[in-house]
Amino acid sequence: MYSTDYSSRKNIIIGVFLLVAIIFIIRLFYLQVINSSYKLSADNIVLRKVREYPPRGLIYDRYGNLMVFNEAAYDLMVIPRQMKDVDTSLICDITGIDKLTFEKKLTKAKRYSYYKPSTFMKQISKKDIGKIQEKLYQIPGLFIQTRTLRQYPYPIAGHLLGSIGEVNKREIEKDNFYKPGDYIGKSGIENYYEEYLRGKSGLKIVEVDVHNRLKGKYSNGKFDTIAVAGKDLFLGIDADLQLYGEQLMQNKKGSIVAIEPKTGELLALISSPGYNPNLLVGRERSENYSKLLKDTLIPLMNRATMGTYPPGSTFKMVNALVGLQDKTLNKFTEYGCKGQLSAPIKCTHDHKTPLNLSEAIEQSCNPYFWNTYKRILENPSYSSSHEGYEHWYENVTSFGFGEKFKTDIPFEVKGNMPDNKYFDKLYRGSWNALTVRSLSIGQGEILVTPIQLANLSAIIANRGYYYPPHLLTKMEGHDEVLNPYFTEKQITSIDPDNFDIVRTAMLDVFEAEYGTARWYKLDSIKQCGKTGTVQNPHGDDHSIFIAFAPMDNPQIAISVIVENSGFGSKWAAPIASLLIEKYLSGEPQRKALEKRMMDGNLLQGDNNNNQH
Amino acid sequence: MRNREKISGNIDWVTVMIYSILVFVGWLSIFTASAGEDVSTLLDLNTRYGKQLLWIGFAILLAGLILIIDAEFFSTFSYVFYLGLLLLLVGVLIFGSTVAGSKSWFRIGGFAIQPAEFAKFATALAMAKYLSALNVNMRALKTKVISMGILILPALLILLQNDTGSALVYFSFGIVLFREGFSGLLFIAVLMMATLFITTILFSETLVISVLAGIVFIILIFFKKYRKNWKPIFGIMVLSIAFVFSANYAFENVLPAHQKNRINVLLGIEQDLRGAGYNVNQSKIAIGSGGLTGKGFRNGVLTRYNFVPEQSTDFIFCTIGEEWGFLGVSVLILLFMTLLIRIILLAERQRSKFSRIYGYGVASILFFHFTINIGMTIGLAPVVGIPLPFLSYGGSSLWAFTLLLFIFLKQDANRLNVL
After folding, report:
1. Which secondary-structure segment (H or E) carries A29?
2. Cα–Cα dist A271/A290, whole Å
3. Does any domain span residue A17?
4. Do A37 and B348 make contact, defined as CB atoms within 8 angstroms?
5. Looking at the domain assignment, is residue A217 inside a domain?
6. Is A10 part of any domain?
7. Residues B46-100 pLDDT 10s
8. Are residues A498 and A409 in the same domain?
């Protein structure tokens, strides 16, 4: 029997103990102090950033009628990490999607982020969300986020109000305010005043437990920010007038622009065919949008600001005013229009000859204005007709032609007002009044937009000045007009006195025996107007009418264009007159005329053509 | 009366102090993991912290009782304890109820007792009793077989309960055997087997065998003095190759799928964050997010909001890691180390061989639990559910560890009375 003392082995054993302890401490130092990714993962697991969406600013018309408001909608959000062992068939059942769609949506969410919430289903209605909410506690990883959708009490003014839609990648890159899934004004007022309408979103950081139940605020809400509602906007638009105009324009192509001459505020901005703005809201937006996009009548195009037309006879007043200002024309000037005198531009009307200025406007005599135009360009004060043209060009552009107004009007185009250089290039320097004679009656190279035409009417109403046509009148929280340019008086080169004869002549268009709009005279309102019939190389002539009223204290200036409808007096003039009556007296009395205008369908031909 | 005073004077108060601190820290962590926002009373028996408070009370009574009982009682009745526990381990297989897949609980009313926890101290007693016998020759084969038998019997019974973790604890008695004179070669062999096992799973049988053959080849070619020992070298090689094949076969075909998964995840072969790797990953995140100084008491959001499974039992270390940070866990590890080394030193000062061997048994069991439990929370050991001594929630484990430790303290207090 022998025994050995092994007590020194205790050192080996203690050594092993210490080795393990040292390994643990090194490992823990790595996990807790060196590697910070665990801290980050922990935040991702426990903290949920909940964005508080501010209500978007509301939009009112000039009388405070609500044009755009918000309605709650619900997004179903998903956090893929928490979606384990979930009852797929329950989810499919409450959301009404099939298994395949479920997998697809989940895969998409996973591709975005495994830890961060992403949208699972968008814009669920109040009715459907109830059913989902009831069962939601059984499904970890899903939660509801409240959003707002735009709604429109009047189904009108889609073009000018514009619409909101989800931000795209480019918009996110441009402005870090936006996160994927946010909404942004895509067009119209919604786009132009986006930074005011959107408000400021808030961020709430909350802690959740493993079952995704809310446990409380993170750090007592120290890092939370509060959502600030968007600013409400007030537009100069008269919603009733806009609605009435859209009704008058139904089944017709064209546009109506109405301006308050004293302020430049747009009372109505109509493009027809239009669309119900409620179509471009919510889940149906993209489907409806592509439908509208494919429509051959181009309802998405805002003809009032993007359509360009030769102004036709309505431009005769401009030439008359330039002539009066230059003193190459006065109210006693007479030109004949028969035989030789009718060359090179024929008179299209049958009337006495010669005519004076007032009669020429009233009856829209082409040769009279050719002669007027010739005298302006060949004015002996200038060395050549080129110089005369340059002078004419300066006068005409002071009316705002050939330029954008650059206010808050959506998608504006310039139109076209050719200058000297253009003709020098076109005719290699050799041209004169005769070469560019079409301009005398508003044809040829001149192209104007309906809004420029309405502005012309406002200038005549104001006797020589205008305010840039604009939509916004007031914004919540701003006492002054947001953009001072909107209230900057723009004075034309024509003296106020020179307008008197033109205005009287325009009154005669309604009130004189041979006036081209004499059928639409009103006893109660002194209307001034001018017809135009624009030759259209692609089809039937366009009917144009500009007007303002009442003559002595103009409240409304208007331009109406009805495409392919022939003479201005047939469609455009009565529509303009009805709008004036509506605006000034509240309710048009001429029900038969109103019904004829509303029922008139000028699209049938188009539809037939489209079918070929 | 005089006698009792003497005993209290001989008790190692350092160990008692560390024990108390660990139990208290454990209770704090259970409190933070299981308490809601409002706590009305600490002794709320519907909560885990309330129950644990009750278990701690009983544990203190138990410790006091052990200190009063005659020290000879435990050495005398060692085998009785051992056999009694073996019977209970058999009994639980027949009458026990299953919790979390393990059939290892006796249900009595609202409470459940886990005999496997108590089998540890009984085995330590039996081992000490056997090896301290005067006629035992450590070199004899018989001694080796019987001492191995004492370990393997309870380990097998516990394995049958499907409680792998508790069965593995009996490996720790290797330390006791080593101290008492078992050959160190045995431990080197175990280490080698473990290395071969891990490399086989990580790489492939062919690669491991090629490397082995390469090593043998190099030894025989370049080290002339070993050439004459070619027979044992070849023998080791053949055994190793046989082990590699059988280990691989066992891993692929014998091991239950969940065990295999855990090992795969541990070795980094699989990254199954939603399955077997979930616990460990969540646990690492919780500990890692604690940083240097931790988030503070009751501020460990991951552990408080149940992101770490088994949080007040096997993963209690996470709570400490998250709330007290690197500094806190370092202090905890130092406390454990102090306790373990203290027990070794106390064991070494025993006059009685029984007390010394038992002391080593205590240190070994505690060390094994410490290593595997903390190791699994920080991704260094496979997830086998065994508690962290004195800290984890649970009456059985707390009482068993208290018994284990205080029997030794009693032996130590009584050491001067041993001739």
Report:
1. helix A9-29
2. 19
3. no
4. no
5. yes
6. no
7. 888 899 999 999 999 999 999 999 888 999 999 999 999 999 999 998 888 877 6
8. yes
